[in-house]
Write a structure and sequence with these properties.
Elements: H1 2-16, H2 21-42, H3 53-58, H4 63-83, H5 92-121
Helix pairs in contact: 1-2, 1-4, 1-5
């Protein structure tokens, strides 16, 4: 999840105009959640909140489902933006944020998978 997913929601919402207000709101709320958690981690504390609003709303027993739904939503938004050619609508600053978010998301997934593999080999 994290900051790239917030950017995908906010930028897709902005692209959709009035129809995208819910995505903008969700992205901003997720951004606040991620910043709060980041500050806690920087002070060597555990996360204060779940990873995203959907996970928080579904609660502890179904938190993983909420995280999965959020991930699917974010990837669907990336697919829509690319598939409909809407990246061309973004201004240069928005496009830079989008591209940085994609790079961070891809590298995060790669490093995450590598970490799991290394941990499994050392178990």
């Amino acid at each position: 999840m994290g900051l790239p997913f917030c950017a995908f929601k906010i930028l897709t919402g902005l692209t959709l105009g009035r129809a995208g207000w819910a995505l903008i709101a969700l992205g901003v709320l997720d951004l606040v959640i991620n910043v709060v958690n980041l500050v806690a981690l920087l002070f060597n504390r555990p996360r204060v909140l779940g990873v995203c609003l959907i996970a928080i709303l579904l609660g502890r027993p179904r938190e993983d489902l909420g995280t999965s739904i959020d991930m699917l939503l974010s990837f669907a938004l990336v697919a829509l933006m690319i598939g409909f050619g809407w990246l061309a609508v973004l201004d240069p600053t928005e496009l830079a944020v989008w591209n940085i978010s994609v790079i961070l998301n891809v590298l995060g997934a790669g490093f995450g998978r590598l970490f799991l593999s290394l941990r499994a080999e050392n178990a």
